[in-house]
Write a structure and sequence with these properties.
- The protein is an alpha/beta fold and 362 residues long.
- The strands form 3 sheets. An 8-stranded mixed sheet has the order 5-6-4-3-7-8-12-9, with helices on both faces. The chain has a two-stranded antiparallel ribbon with strand order 1-2.
- A hairpin with a 7-residue loop joins β1 and β2.
- α1 packs parallel to α2.
- It is globular.
- The two termini are 17 Å apart.
Length: 362
């Protein structure tokens, strides 16, 4: 695997983090700039490495080769044999979310640390619910406790969000940070498994329910019209800024509906070129939304990096590296900057996607 700078993604001759021995930087300056974000993961990676060396079993690797043409590289995967470790009982009222190190030290304080295998896969999976919780906290989200908050996680896949929901209790972390509220999490996407389509399950806590819908966001909204209140929309690493025309067009259509609906929409990005930079270009050139959370580096990004096969020198991703949120159209407008119809629109999107495909990690 070609290593890349943890700050900017560039390859070539790199410096290795002396502490964890798994993270690289192109310059000492980038290592210093990235330290506030890397330090918590660094401590956990050191601990995981120590546990791995003391264990007779080897953690399962990331299932890297299974990437289909046109599929976003930010869609994280684990090998089929990877087990999702159970979380210990919630210790007390939740402190402010800061970084991985403080979270783990507090969250596992009621457990024997020697029995907790903090391997990277566990932290990668926890990155999803913790990124959601962090975004809601940044938005100072509140709701009427008498109503259930519906969170639709758009673009969910069977290999990532659905698997975390079914094989772990990680998504129930949200009720630990909002104990007075009840949540219904809807996992929506054409890559949800057929077996779980329209399935609803209860979790270990009655305040949190999970359901699954196999289909596009547009199909889900037609079948289950969202309300303007008590609804939050989320998409983890959607990749609509990657330059794939069909994917971009599909998201633009759904985003126009979402922005007109006026509900908050939270996004994470897996890199700062085709995802963050590309998505910002689509939003600002075509849609013109109001940002309720400006793009920010996420202290709860995943700790594993993915390199797209065949493009190891130009394509990398780390799930949930960045966060931002939008709601409504900016200013007095009630519609997008460019209406999604007609020859001019298609020509603009084709040109825009050509620009997006030119973004790389260099």
């Amino acid at each position: 695997m070609a290593e890349r700078c943890n700050k900017c993604g560039v390859g070539g001759k790199l410096l290795r983090c002396a502490a964890c021995q798994t993270t690289f930087y192109c310059t000492k300056e980038h290592q210093k700039e990235d330290w506030p974000f890397h330090k918590s993961a660094c401590a956990l990676l050191r601990k995981a490495k120590k546990q791995e060396s003391n264990s007779s079993s080897t953690p399962m690797p990331i299932d890297e080769p299974q990437t289909n043409t046109g599929e976003c590289v930010g869609t994280f995967r684990w090998s089929k044999g990877q087990q999702m470790k159970s979380l210990p009982a919630f210790p007390s009222s939740a402190p402010e979310l800061a970084d991985w190190k403080s979270f783990v030290n507090w969250r596992f304080s009621t457990s024997d640390s020697d029995e907790i295998n903090l391997d990277p896969a566990m932290l990668d999976a926890l990155s999803y619910p913790l990124s959601l919780v962090l975004a809601l906290k940044k938005l100072n989200y509140t709701a009427d406790p008498s109503n259930t908050v519906n969170i639709a996680i758009l673009g969910s896949t069977a290999k990532a969000e659905e698997r975390i929901a079914l094989e772990s209790d990680y998504f129930t972390e949200i009720i630990n940070y909002f104990p007075s509220l009840r949540f219904h999490l809807h996992f929506v996407g054409p890559e949800i498994s057929r077996l779980n389509h329209l399935r609803t399950i209860s979790t270990s806590d009655s305040r949190c329910t999970l359901s699954f819908y196999r289909g596009t966001a547009g199909e889900f909204f037609l079948e289950f019209p969202p309300s303007r209140s008590h609804t939050i929309l989320v998409s983890f690493n959607p990749g609509y800024g990657s330059g794939f025309v069909e994917l971009t067009l599909s998201w633009i259509k759904d985003l126009v509906f979402i922005l007109r609906l006026g509900v908050p929409m939270i996004f994470t990005c897996a890199n700062d070129y085709s995802d963050l930079r590309g998505e910002q270009l689509v939003l600002k050139e075509v849609l013109g939304p109001r940002f309720i959370l400006e793009p920010m580096e996420n202290p709860f990004r995943a700790v594993s990096y993915f390199h797209e096969p065949g493009k190891r020198e130009t394509a990398w991703s780390c799930s949930n590296s960045y966060l931002y949120a939008i709601q409504c159209f900016d200013g007095e407008r009630s519609g997008p900057l460019l209406e999604p119809r007609g020859a001019r629109f298609k020509e603009t999107i084709n040109k825009l996607c050509a620009v997006l495909r030119g973004f790389d990690a260099a």
